[in-house]
Amino acid sequence: VAFALNEIDHNKKRIVRTDSQGQVRYFTFNPYQMVATNGRYYLIGNFDAYDNLAYVRLDHISDISLLETRAKPMKKVAGLENGLDLPEHMAEHIYMLYGNTVRVHFKAPKTLADQIVDWFGYSFTVLSEDEENIVVQVDVNERAMRFWSLQYGTFVEVLEPKSLRDDIIKSVRKMMSNYNVNEEFRR
Questions:
Q1: What is the pTM of this model?
Q2: Are 64 and 2 in contact (CB under 8 A)?
Q3: To the nearest whole percent, how much of the chain has pLDDT over 90?
Q4: DSSP classification of residue 149
Q5: What pLDDT, in 10s, does the model give residues 13-72?
């Protein structure tokens, strides 16, 4: 398919993406699956000019047309060489962000188990537990895990990988500075 992409500007107006000459920019997309998550509908597929997986929100598409050419086979798209296991894919891409999948270990209270299943499905592993907490292992999109851990930050501590943990710490420090938190609390 080919379509124009739209975004919402600060005035709440829908604007269409344009090229450097101000003409509507059309994208050729190979759609493989439509999914609903977090109250939004997405196409999972590939922008034809690239070899990676991509996600497009349906409400950001306009002026769509069906092309005569056949879609690029999934096996030619990085990450889809063996097809698309949708439940596993959705558990790894909780916010429908593209990027690397990493193995993450995090600590959370046992009472958060329902939320963990809601977000990651049953594809996580409990590595250890004590009376109150569990240590969970999950394979997940790294950017999505950053957002998820910030969303659940008062309950969850990311333990590994160190690079993700460090990125979350930077985000928390930035949030603290946004709220003018005294220097004594930043330590």
A1: 0.69
A2: yes
A3: 64
A4: H
A5: 889 999 999 999 999 999 999 998 878 899 999 999 999 899 999 999 999 999 999 999
Residue type, 79: G
Kindly list the distances between the CA atom of residue 186 and the CA atoms of 82, 159, 165, 176, in Å, as whole numbers in the listed order.
Answer: 46, 20, 16, 7
Q: Give me the count of residues in the chain.
A: 187
DSSP assigned state of 24: B
Give the separation between CA 18 and CA 2, rounded to whole angstroms.
Answer: 14
The pLDDT tens digits for 68-112 are 999 999 999 988 898 998 888 887 887 777 788 899 999 999 989
Cα dihedral 21, 22, 28, 33 sign: positive
Distance between CA atoms of residues 84 and 183, nearest Å: 48
| Cβ burial, residue 135 (10 Å; 0-12/13-18/19+) | middle
| 61 phi and psi angles, rounded to 5 deg | -100, 140
Instruction: Retrieve residue 141's tokens.
Output: 């999109």
Q: Which whole-number Å values give the CA distances from 98 to 109, 118, 131, 170, in the listed order?
A: 28, 20, 36, 21
If residue 28 lies in a helix (H) or strand (E), which one and from where to where?
strand 26-37
